[in-house]
Amino acid sequence: MNRVSEVRLKSSNKKFIISIFIFSVIFILSTIFTKFNPVVAFTSQGEFWRFIFVDFLPPNFSKPEQILNASLQTFYMAFGSTVVAAFFALIFAFMGTYSICNNKILNKIIRGIASVLRNIPAIIWAFVLVAAFGIGNTVGVLALIISTTGFLIRAFIETLDELAQESIEALRATGASTFAVITQSAIPISLPGFISWFLYCIETNIRASTILGMVGAGGIGLLMTGYIKQYNYHSASAVIITIIVIIIAVNLLTEYLRKILMK
Amino acid sequence: METILKVEKLSKKYNKISEYAIKNINFELKKGEIIGVIGPSGAGKSTLLRCINRLIDPNEGKVYLENEEITSVNSTKVRNVRRRIGMIFQHYNLINRLSVMQNVMHGRLGYMNTINSTFGIYTEEDKRKAVSLLEMTGLHSFMYNRAGDLSGGQKQRVGILRAIMQEPLLLLCDEPIASLDPASAHIVMDLIRKIAKENNIACLINLHQVDVAIQYSDKIIGMKNGEIIFNDEASKLDERTIEEIYSKPMRELMIGGETYSEQSQRG
Fold first, then answer.
1. What total number of domains does chain B contain?
2. B82-94: average pLDDT
3. Closest Cα of chain B to A197: distance in Å?
């Protein structure tokens, strides 16, 4: 018998098999501990659709001014907090990039603070702040400012490091002061990147601020939670539909702004 | 002639374990003199240039600009040193989203106070000077175009004008034509030589192309592994020395896309 051994593409499949095995074990353990049964998701469909069509729909828009008010609050929270966060992030980003601030220790401290701020979700900040200051819009705005500042510091530093290094070096070589280097080269070069990240944060903060409302941080989320707690599902569904419309509208708007501003 | 730049025992190591990027560099540059620096990639040419205007701080040695020692000046004074040294880059390093005029004006930033330089408020005199330089180089009609819309050769000429606006004593050119086609390369080199000779500006030019270096420089410095192994009149650079600098026989040395021997045959 003339057996020719197969030509393999990789030296070994061991890694792949081990990964699949570990993945499967974790999945099985997870479903056991959470008592999640995938079959239930299909068998209890009747109950789910009954809830949607009987309890939830049709939506009750009988108090439009209340919904409008809450939506505006949510929008203001998202927009206001993103603007404030972008302002602080810009300052700290310059302190966090070596090409502008050549102090490696300060760079590391700024990056460290940024990653702590952004890795703790806004909802946790809101939860802590609500406990400290009580329910209200201020808490929502503060929570968003904290997490967005962290995120934008990181995003702005990466934009600067990626785009502006060479032109910063060129202006340094002319003897320009650090302020002039920032306004005459770092900002003009990175502006489209900065704007793009800013718009991205507006989008995510609209979404986040609806969730923040649920822990008592004001806005449309608070209104929705209120209705749900009163078992007023028809009004709650009206709020949910409004939230979906707002999110889609803001996404379309930022997409449009990106197109005209990035030219 | 008057010595503008004097470099003494200059050395730089990027970190403790690495080799010297440049080691014990000594040379002088006189007013209006053009020195071409040649050598293979990694020979330390860029490091040498950046140690002179302190974009990189050397570990040892001294640099004198007009007899003033500049390696030890503090960070505020280093701006006064840099503004007297123009620099030209391989990738032009323009601010692509700003106008050609704005880019040329950047050459004045080192001479302005913080408020004016931060907000880009230039004097009429400086602006007129920029316009006349743009006219001289034929870039006048592009002055309000975005720098990013220009061709490579045009961008490099804007880069040169930015450096000239500094009214420098010394011009450091880091591979000024490495990203350009041969025709644009010659326009750029002609402009650098013309400006240097007319205004008596000393030039230190890093170049990959040996033939271009010989054609445009008064003197040649040959670098290898961070050290100077040749420093003399351009006419005294012979094939044996070139082979030693690049550690390769002449026929394998690719110059501007063709071998050196092919180029000399062509004339």
1. 1
2. 94
3. 18
Q: Which domain holds residue A95?
A: 65-261
> Tokens standing for A181?
């280097």
When CB atoms are compared, the residue of A176, A191, A192 closest to B109 is A176
Is residue A7 assigned to a domain? Answer: no
- Tokens 């290898």 locate to B224
Nearest to A167 among B94, B107, B172 (CB): B94
Sign of the alpha-carbon dihedral angle for B74, B75, B80, B85: positive
Q: A86 pLDDT band (50/70/90 cuts)?
A: very high
Residues A208 and A121 in one domain: yes
E strands along chain B, which residues?
A: 3-13, 20-30, 34-38, 60-65, 68-69, 85-88, 170-174, 202-206, 219-224, 227-233, 254-255, 258-259
- Check if the beta carbon of residue B58 is closer than 8 Å to that of residue B50: no
Q: Which residues of A touch B87 (CB under 8 A)?
A: 170, 173-174
In chain A, the residue whose alpha carbon lies closest to the alpha carbon of B103 is A184
| Total number of domains constituting chain A | 2
The whole-number pLDDT of residue A36 equals 74
B145: which 2 tokens?
């175009």
Between CA B201 and CA B199 the distance in angstroms is 5
* Residue A17 amino acid letter: I
Indicate the residue of B81, B97, B111 with minimum beta-carbon distance to A188.
B97
- Specify the amino acid at residue A82: T
Smallest Cα distance from B114 to chain A, Å: 7
Q: Check CB contact under 8 Å for A177 and B82.
A: no
Check which CATH number belongs to the domain holding B48 and give it.
3.40.50.300
* B55 Cα to chain A: minimum distance (Å): 7
A5: DSSP letter:
P
- Confidence at residue A124, expressed as pLDDT on a 0 to 100 scale: 85
| Residue A73 sits in the same domain as residue A178 | yes
Chain A: give the shortest CA distance to residue B200, in Å. 19
Q: Is residue A23 in a domain?
A: yes
Q: Are B220 and B234 in contact (CB under 8 A)?
A: yes
Does the global pTM surpass 0.90? no
pLDDT digits (tens, 9 = 90+) for B211-265: 899 999 999 999 999 999 999 998 888 888 888 898 888 777 755 444 444 444 4
Range of the domain at B62: 3-266
Return the number of other C-beta atoms located less than 10 Å from residue B182's C-beta: 11
Structural domain includes residue A191: yes
ipTM: 0.87
A172 vs B contacts (CB less than 8 Å): 55, 82
